[in-house]
Amino acid sequence: MKRRTFTKLAAVPFTAGVTRAGSPNRAAQPDTASTGFMKLGHQHWSDDASLRLLAALGVNHICSAEPSAKFDENWSVEGLVKLRERVESFGIRLEAVPLPLSSSYIAKAENPAIMLGRSPERDREIDSICQMIRNCGRAGIPMVKYNLTILGVVRTSSTPGRGGAKYSAFRYRDAVQDPPLTEAGPVSSAEMWDRIAYFLERVVPVAEEAKVRMACHPHDPGMPEQEGFRGVHRVLGSVAGLKRFIEIHPSAYHGLNFCQGTVTEMLRDPNREIHDVIRYFGSRKKIFNVHFRNIRGGFLDFQETFPDAGDVNMLAALRTYKEVGYDGMLMPDHAPVIEGDTGGRQAFAFAFGYIRGLLNAVQTEGVKA
Questions:
Q1: N or C, which end of the chain has less CB nearby within 10 Å?
Q2: What is the pTM for the complete model shown?
Q3: What CATH number labels 35-363?
Q4: How far apart are CA 244 and CA 226, in angstroms?
Q5: In degrees rounded to 5, what are phi and psi of residue 183?
Q6: Which residues lie below 8 Å from residue 47, measured CB to CB, with a gap of 6+?
Q7: Contact of 262 with 217, CB cutoff 8 Å
């Protein structure tokens, strides 16, 4: 990025818009006070038509689509305020935005030098990320979510599910490692940790200053610790790795986009083991956001199912989130593909209703009628 452009975007004033007074539909403003309980949320749907649908379905908290894949005017304070106010005009709270550090395979990812460990390019990319975080804070957006990945999301062939729906699946024994290496070449666990630490040590202090929480997604899926996949070791693909991750530069603003689906993919007995994992990270206040999805199977062999069709008792899981005091968003994620369901609207609508029903049940447990 040219220095003149960077300076212009960084210097946009902290406008009156961040007070939420300038929203185009004041009457539709959400109640932004914390309820102390979990919230039904969603991600990536932030065009006007989708916001109308979400509002109608009672989804009042979201992570938006990525403002832009590069540091441009959409990442300025003014651009982010416009995004937030537009979302709020539908009665929806903008809880987070995704940084241009996506779950894409490295060859298609934005800001690839960060995880390739290439300086000085990565330093320029990190400088842009830091300014995006500062601008989020100034625009009144309390969280960003992101990935630190080389391989992206790895899957094998889909499998048939309920009613002929297609379930995304992964079987390590069927995964073709061809070519055997990615553009990154061999990347050891030590190199991955060095690159992750390099990023966090420069970015987390900025997040602390801006008071913006950083929610990182685990590696999806985890791979064998010794072998990795295509020469890359997936250090954020195990519970032990996630525990180490949150201890790098400890901060209240450094935590997890806790994808329950991805975490259960790491486990041998997901239905039994997931509760202690939720307790570990939840009791430490490191769960910033939850992708609330279910799987059938476990480590190295699983299908992504409808939320009520997997191995994990989702009601029991929700009770564990309540136990640790988690009060953020629960989002459906990776919905099965139904024939004729353009954009996954029907599959996600089912998930919204299912999660809403669980939330209502858990919230009212022990409350006298």
A1: C
A2: 0.91
A3: 3.20.20.150
A4: 17
A5: -60, -20
A6: 65
A7: yes
